[in-house]
């Protein structure tokens, strides 16, 4: 008789635990942020500006991750809508940068050239969005103010 009671208690506990885990798993999936296809304010805000890394001054980077971003000559050539030329590598940005920024759509890749983040289509290498981290604010960081080469 006592085995039946104990088995009933264990069975009931297993059902309650299973129900709890099912609800929590479903809630976790629905609380995931939607991916975006452009840079957002939080992408700009996550970066530190004008900090020291050891004895060196760093204009832009992630101080907590010990990442200091330096200028690149390739930054000037970037335009929204262009296809990256073959001489410009489309290597993804550092993993620690990708983790700190907002979730992007699956077909996009975040690439870094110096102090600029670029969203490119992973298949076509077309530039979808540019975020110039050396700009004074987010609005200026999104404006493609550089002049095209003539």
Ends distance: 91 Å
Shape: elongated
The counted number of beta strands is: 6
Secondary structure: helix percent: 25-40%
Task: Spell the H/E element sequence.
Answer: HHEEEHEEEH
Q: Using the 3D structure, state the CATH architecture of the domain at 41-142.
A: Roll
**CATH domain class name of the domain at 41-142:** Alpha Beta
Mean pLDDT: 84
Give the CATH topology of the domain at 41-142: Nuclear Transport Factor 2, Chain: A
Task: State Rg.
Answer: 23 Å
Strand order of the largest sheet: 1-2-3
The stretches of 5 or more residues where confidence is low (pLDDT under 50) are 145-150
DSSP strand content: 15-25%
Category from helices, strands and their pairing: alpha+beta
Largest sheet, described in full? 3 strands, antiparallel
Please tell me about this protein's structure.
- 21% of the residues are buried.
- The chain is elongated.
- Residues 145-150 have low confidence and may be disordered.
- It has a domain at 41-142: Nuclear Transport Factor 2, Chain: A, CATH 3.10.450.
- The chain has helices at 2-30, 41-45, 95-100, 138-142; strands at residues 48-53, 56-62, 67-69, 108-113, 116-121, 127-132.
- The protein is of the alpha+beta class and 150 residues long.
- It has four helices and six strands.
- It starts with a helix and ends in an 8-residue tail after the last helix.
- The strands form two sheets. Strands 1-2-3 form a three-stranded antiparallel β-sheet, with no helix packed on it. Strands 4-5-6 form a three-stranded antiparallel β-sheet.
């Amino acid at each position: 008789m006592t085995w039946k009671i104990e088995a009933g208690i264990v069975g009931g506990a297993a059902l309650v635990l299973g129900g709890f885990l099912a609800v929590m798993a479903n809630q976790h999936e629905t609380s995931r942020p939607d991916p975006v296809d452009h840079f957002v304010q939080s992408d700009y805000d996550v970066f530190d500006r004008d900090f020291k890394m050891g004895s060196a001054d760093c204009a832009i980077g992630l101080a907590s991750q010990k990442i200091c971003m330096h200028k690149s000559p390739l930054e000037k050539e970037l335009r929204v809508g262009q296809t990256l030329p073959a001489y410009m590598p489309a290597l993804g940005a550092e993993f620690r940068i990708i983790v700190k920024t907002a979730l992007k759509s699956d077909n996009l890749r975040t690439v870094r050239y110096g102090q600029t983040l670029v969203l490119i289509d992973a298949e076509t290498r077309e530039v979808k969005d540019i975020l110039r981290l050396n700009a004074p604010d987010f609005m200026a960081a999104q404006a493609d103010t550089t002049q095209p080469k003539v």
